[in-house]
Amino acid sequence: MKHIHRFFVSQSLTSGSSICLEPDDSFHASKVLRIRPGDAIELADPEGAVFLAKVTVAGQVVEAIAESEIVPKSSDVKTALTVVQVLPSGRKMDMIVEKLSELGVDRLVPVFGDKSAARPSAGEGKLQRWRRIARSAASQSKRERVMSVEQPRTLSGWMDEEPGRFYVLSTEVAGEPLGQALEGGEKPVTLVIGPEAGFSDAELDGFSGSGAVFVSLGRQVLRAETASLAASALALHKLGALG
């Protein structure tokens, strides 16, 4: 069976809707995927509906007509998982964004911590690239929605804005196994993943004062990007969204 590629559109779809793909998607569809008029593609709208569509124009702009709905609109959040990621060094965040989007994370919040390898100036100009990566990964993995990647902020600022229950993956504090901590838990779930250098004493005190649950993935000390993917996959499994 021929693989049918999925693209995200910004408007609500109904059967018969005529849609122009975004410029980047049009380029990818026509120049990279070699999609031609008459080919079938899938279109996913902001409400989570997915339609089978037929390409009518394939050039600098790709146009298609939505035909039949294959995934209905849905108002519920399927995974209800937010990952708060302390920014690592270099290009590691690109990989984290891509893989979390593929796995099915709903929301990614990049933050700067006291021991972050990346400083606030490093986040300037990267947000749009991360959002493009998340969108591309969502298309590749055939998600119904694109993972939200938010504006980078400080870890303390995030805690001030979003009080509530969250799980902190930490090697500084003995925590219960993540899988055990999530048993019978309520949605949504928020995971906080620290840097390889760990959290500062002030951050750990802040977590304790906010009622955070400290959790562990075992005795192994994982790199930040490995810990993020492993913890997210386990949480998604416990939420019934993976495996």
Provide a brief overview of the structure:
With 243 residues, this protein is an alpha/beta fold. Helices cover 29% and strands 25% of the residues. The protein has helices spanning 23-32, 92-103, 127-140, 155-161, 178-181, 201-209, 224-238; strands at 6-8, 18-20, 40-44, 50-58, 62-71, 81-86, 107-112, 148-149, 153-154, 167-169, 176-177, 189-193, 213-216.
Layout of helices and strands:
Elements: E1 6-8, E2 18-20, H1 23-32, E3 40-44, E4 50-58, E5 62-71, E6 81-86, H2 92-103, E7 107-112, H3 127-140, E8 148-149, E9 153-154, H4 155-161, E10 167-169, E11 176-177, H5 178-181, E12 189-193, H6 201-209, E13 213-216, H7 224-238
Parallel strand pairs: 1-3, 6-7, 6-12, 7-8, 7-9, 10-12, 10-13, 11-13
Antiparallel strand pairs: 2-5, 3-4, 4-5
Can you describe what's shown?
29% of the residues lie in helices and 25% in strands. With 243 residues, the protein is α/β, with parallel strands linked by helices. It has 2 domains: 6-71, Beta Barrel (Ribosomal Protein L25, Chain P), CATH 2.40.240; 81-238, SPOUT methyltransferase, trefoil knot domain (Alpha/beta knot, 3-Layer(aba) Sandwich), CATH 3.40.1280. Strands 6, 7, 8, 9, 10, 11, 12 and 13 form an 8-stranded parallel beta sheet that branches. A 5-stranded mixed beta sheet has the order 1-3-4-5-2. Helix 2 (92-103) runs parallel beside helix 3 and helix 2 packs parallel to helix 7. It is elongated. The mean pLDDT is 89.
